[in-house]
Amino acid sequence: MGDLAYLALGKLDGRLKNSPVADIWAVRMRLRAISQSASNAGIGVDLLEVENWIAGAALPPRYKQGLNDPIHITTITHFVIATFNLSRCSVHNEASSIWNSVFNASQEMNHWDGEAYSIYTPIWRAVREICQDLSLSPSASSLVHANLMILDHLEASIEAHILQMKTTNGGRLIPSVWIAGLFIPYLVWKSGLTDTLMPNLIGSVRFFDLTATEMQNMLISTIENESADGLRELDQLEANFAASNRIRKFTKRSRYQIANKFMLAFPSLTQRRLGSVLGTTPQGAGYLCRQLQNAAVEQRN
């Protein structure tokens, strides 16, 4: 099972090195990582809700009904992006260019849930320091050992109640172990298993409740399944991008191509936000969106 997982991961990593939509793929995987991390933190939000918010089409998920949630989605998103920024992966850097043109994670967090930043930052920094100091080999057993070290270090160096939960002034209990899960893609990249940071490798927080053997089996299964899903997503993105190229001839720097890339990354991107990215009016962005929609119809026909 381990060999199949490594082969699938290697195939995805190799494809991403030469794919014209690797940056778009990485953006899409960020959305998945945010949704999974929210679930790990005890907040139920789906991928479409996250995308609509990032794309400017909706307010943050659960901004009304989530008043009693243990943590806000904006804070989770801030720490997801901050963790991915630790890598020196070129695909991640290109994805950040797209992402930052559309969305400011720190600004959203400060507006909606600034209190949580002071609660979680010491925990996140502690895990970051451990991960950056680790020496890893490219194997599941090394990654499991690293995660066990993270948990042991947190238990030894941070007050026990901080590892599992933190009580805010409002009396809410906030789980914290999900933060360790954010670093799994970074650790996989740091170990040398991949040259590309794989945001989709954030798995269930149940991972940290298992024995070492169970953790290794779950990690291998996650790598195999997410690599297969990631390849399917990449295939679809490449097909859509190639079809747009065939139907509409444009130069590399044309607004149509830029709009095409951003709409593939965020299908629900609003005309106002797309216009801001392109340096044009919402009406101008709407015209480009209609062109893209017509191209999609031509592709289906």
Low-confidence stretches: none
Rg calc:
20 Å
The helix/strand order is HHHHHHHHEEHHHHHH
Largest sheet: spatial strand order:
1-2
**Biggest beta sheet attributes:** 2 strands, antiparallel
Number of domains: 1
What is the number of helical segments per DSSP (H or I, 4+ residues)?
14
**Beginning-to-end CA distance, first to last residue:** 41 Å
> In percent, how much strand structure appears in the residues?
under 5%
User: What coarse outline follows from CA principal-axis ratios?
Assistant: globular
Instruction: Work out the helicity level.
Output: 55-70%
E-strand count: 2
Overall structural class, as computed from helix and strand content, comes to mainly alpha
Supply database-style keywords:
301 residues; single chain; globular; mainly alpha; two-stranded antiparallel ribbon
Task: Offer a quick outline of the entry.
This protein is mainly alpha-helical and 301 residues long.
